[in-house]
Design brief:
Number of strands: 17
Protein name: ATPase
Largest sheet: 8 strands, mixed
Order of helices and strands: EEHEHEEHEHEHHEEHEEEEHHEEEE
Strand content: 15-25%
Structural class: alpha+beta
Distance between the termini: 41 Å
Radius of gyration: 21 Å
Shape: globular
Helix content: 10-25%
Organism: Pseudomonas syringae pv. coriandricola
Number of domains: 2
């Protein structure tokens, strides 16, 4: 059988576990160079027990998130050469093409457009989850085969509990990918009508959940603040971004301490991303946290206590930047 739903997870042979596309990107850039791309199978255990295991194609996870229009959203997609098990979680169609009872024309357009987005999620839980696993040096190791056939998923990950479930994530990077793809590809009226459910807040429009940092209020949480920023010179492993447009008339910084950086498992991913600073005009940063005013220095600080609450996109290249 062929898949019909948007594939949001896949089994990575090298990592020996299910990963999201955002997790695959972090793991990939945490590898030392020269890097080799991962291989993926369907996340459903029943599919991996088939004589011919269905492979899943992973696109664009090997490039950093960027404002460059040539860089498309990372995503998994069905490989048309393979058949899936009838109980595969991705086989069932989650929406019909006809208007539903009581549904407006705009709501129908929004629902159908939502299906076409590669990165869209239905539910966002802002509480960080445990880090996804990093690659191992060994290619097989104990407890699984190189083809993923004997590795068993935990009961909570069985396909029966996930089939027909809304797409849910705690990953800010994945939410940002969903937001940027929707903003860039959907008609404005459809984008404004697109909603997600945020745990603790209920249903909210995706557009309003992202607020330009310049409009943020100090000591106020509950939104993803974003803005263009300059990376200031690094001292040790700390990171400081200076927002191009601060809050009010005050300099606004987003800070990551050396201790916070060291606690993050995907340090290689962040370091590789920041190495692009000399060749780009700016970074775009997405911060889920609280800004606080420092009266002594009369500046505003956004302190990142967990790097999973910060997402970073590359800005456009400088005119004289070399092409790698």
């Amino acid at each position: 059988m062929r898949t019909k739903r948007r594939i949001t997870r896949a089994y990575c042979i090298e990592l020996k576990t299910d990963v999201t596309i955002a997790g695959a990107r972090r793991a990939y850039f945490s590898l030392p160079e020269p890097r080799q791309r991962f291989k993926f199978l369907c996340s459903t255990p029943e599919c991996r027990e088939l004589p011919i295991k269905p492979k899943v194609t992973a696109a664009n996870y090997h490039v950093h998130p960027s404002e460059d229009s040539a860089v498309y959203a990372p995503h998994f997609k069905d490989n048309g050469k393979y058949e899936h098990h009838p109980d595969c979680e991705w086989v069932t169609d989650d929406d019909d093409l006809t208007p539903r009872a009581g549904e407006s024309e705009l709501d129908t357009k929004t629902r159908l457009a939502r299906r076409q987005l590669k990165s869209m999620i239905d539910i966002f839980d802002p509480n960080p989850e445990p880090d996804e696993p990093m690659p191992r040096v060994d290619q097989q190791g104990e407890g699984g085969t190189a083809q993923g056939g004997s590795r068993q998923s935990s009961p909570s990950n069985q396909s029966g509990t996930r089939k027909n479930s809304p797409s849910s994530s705690k990953d800010l990077r994945r939410l940002v990918d969903a937001y940027t793809e929707a903003k860039e590809t959907l008609p404005s009226e459809v984008f404004r009508n697109l909603k997600i459910t945020v745990k603790g807040q209920g249903q909210i429009s995706l557009r309003s959940y992202f607020l330009p940092a310049m409009y943020a209020k100090c000591n106020t949480a509950g939104r993803v603040y974003w803005g263009r920023a300059e990376l200031l010179p690094r001292f040790g492993e700390s990171i400081v971004f200076k927002l191009t447009k601060g809050i009010g008339d005050k300099m606004t910084l987003i800070k990551v301490s050396a201790a916070t950086f060291k606690a993050y498992k995907s340090k290689g991913y962040i370091n590789d991303l920041l190495l692009h600073a000399p060749g780009i005009k700016w970074f775009t940063v997405y911060f889920f946290g609280v800004f606080e005013h420092d009266p002594e220095k009369n500046i505003v600080n956004g302190v990142v206590t967990d790097l999973r609450r910060l997402a970073i996109d590359l800005g456009p290249k400088k005119a004289n930047a070399s092409v790698e």
